[in-house]
């Protein structure tokens, strides 16, 4: 089973982590693996990529004619790929050597059409004391209680996600109107693909803990104001997704219920038993981030033509 790993990048500032991501994809234990690199409209970066990786076997290089965003770039990479499976990893992540092997294990032993794995935080600075693990999803990492091993979910996180290529392209790939592009902050570009796969094939994505990717978290991802900003736009994006796909499974509502009925009470009990400043800070952060998500959702509710603006 041939697997094509797609890595997209766009900035010379990210070149160091990006090259580590590509190297980790090239070092996989599974064979055959093809690596598809898509540079999003940056000629300087593309020339560097071509110099560093152009002579590698089983590497496909492409540069968009202009900045088109992560969703367009990932779908373009899938179109250029030749593997039966297309796997995606972010340009600031690195994969365990058996990452692809573990994804393939699920495909070969089931009728899965999509498989995603664990994304663990790789802090490049000290983890902030106030940061609660329940909100690792804000920085693209798997949070506690996300899913059981082997459980079918709508989608996993973008740093560790894969599809049967034919089915992925059949449902249109990633929507270029979602995902980061320039100053647009609309999130959740994985969700529409998962929803369309469910509608078309009646199957979700299988989560496997064995396939592991490490997601680099730089200093800005640990700043409180950035996380509040990120929370707001997650809420905004959730409202857009609800409007675009009103009948889709509501994973975030289930998460909110789990957060408020299990994780928060557990934290309160722990705080009573063993008080600490960090525990108080994390409990406060949970409520602040949750409030910011709700505020973003409400802002999108009162914003006229929110879907049209997201697609602009």
Q: Explain this structure to me?
A:
- By secondary structure, this protein is α/β, with parallel strands linked by helices.
- It has helices spanning 15-26, 43-53, 70-80, 99-108, 165-170, 190-201, 224-244, 251-273, 277-302, 306-311; strands spanning 3-9, 33-39, 59-63, 85-89, 93-95, 114-123, 152-153, 161-164, 205-217.
- Strands 1, 2, 3, 4, 5, 6, 7, 8 and 9 form a nine-stranded mixed sheet that branches.
- Helix 1 links the parallel strand 1 (3-9) and strand 2.
- The N and C termini lie far apart (39 Å).
- Keywords: Membrane, Transferase, Transmembrane, Transmembrane helix.
- It comes from Halobacterium salinarum (strain ATCC 33171 / DSM 3754 / JCM 8978 / NBRC 102687 / NCIMB 764 / 91-R6).
- Residues 4-167 form the Glycosyltransferase 2-like domain.
Largest sheet: 9 strands, mixed
CATH superfamily: Spore Coat Polysaccharide Biosynthesis Protein SpsA, Chain A
SSE series:
EHEHEHEEHEEEHHEHHHH
CATH class assignment:
Alpha Beta
Radius of gyration: 19 Å
Low-confidence stretches: none
- What's the helix count? 10
Mean pLDDT: 91
Fraction of residues in β-strands? 15-25%
In the CATH classification, which architecture applies? Answer: Alpha-Beta Complex
InterPro entries: GDP_glucuronosyltransferase (IPR053553), Glyco_trans_2-like (IPR001173), Glycosyltransf_2 (IPR050834), Nucleotide-diphossugar_trans (IPR029044)
GO molecular function: transferase activity
Protein name: Glucuronosyltransferase AglG
Domain Glycosyltransferase 2-like: 4-167
């Amino acid at each position: 089973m041939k697997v094509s790993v797609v890595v997209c990048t766009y900035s010379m500032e990210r070149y160091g982590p990006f090259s580590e991501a590509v190297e980790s994809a090239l070092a996989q234990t599974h064979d055959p693996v093809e690596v598809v690199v898509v540079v999003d409209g940056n000629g300087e970066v593309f020339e560097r990529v071509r110099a560093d990786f152009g002579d590698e076997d089983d590497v496909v290089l492409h540069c968009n004619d202009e900045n088109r965003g992560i969703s367009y770039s990932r779908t373009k990479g899938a179109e250029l790929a030749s593997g039966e499976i297309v796997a995606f990893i972010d340009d600031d992540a690195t994969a365990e050597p058996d990452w692809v092997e573990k994804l393939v294990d699920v495909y070969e032993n089931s009728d899965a059409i999509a498989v995603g794995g664990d994304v663990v935080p790789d802090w490049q600075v000290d983890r902030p004391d106030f940061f609660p693990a329940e909100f690792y999803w804000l920085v693209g990492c798997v949070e506690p209680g996300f899913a059981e091993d082997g459980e079918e979910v709508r989608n996993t996180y973008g740093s560790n996600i894969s599809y049967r290529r034919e089915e992925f392209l059949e449902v249109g790939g990633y929507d270029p109107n979602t995902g980061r592009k320039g100053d647009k902050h609309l999130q959740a570009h994985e969700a529409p693909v998962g929803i369309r796969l469910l509608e078309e094939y009646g199957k979700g994505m299988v989560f496997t803990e064995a396939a592991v990717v490490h997601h680099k978290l730089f200093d800005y991802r640990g700043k409180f104001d950035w996380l509040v900003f990120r929370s707001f736009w997650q809420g905004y994006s959730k409202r857009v997704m609800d409007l675009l796909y009103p009948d889709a499974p509501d994973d975030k509502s289930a998460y909110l219920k789990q957060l408020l009925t299990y994780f928060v009470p557990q934290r309160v009990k722990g705080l009573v038993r063993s008080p600490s400043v960090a525990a108080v800070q994390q409990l406060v952060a949970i409520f602040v981030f949750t409030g910011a998500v709700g505020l973003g959702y409400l802002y999108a509710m009162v914003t006229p033509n929110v879907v049209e603006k997201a697609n602009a």
